[in-house]
Amino acid sequence: MSSLSHGKNTSTVEVTNISSHGVWLLSHDKELFMPYDDFPWFKEQPIKVIINVEEQSPGHFYWPDIDVDLSEESIEHPERFPLKAKQ
Question: What is the pTM of this model?
Answer without folding.
Answer: 0.80
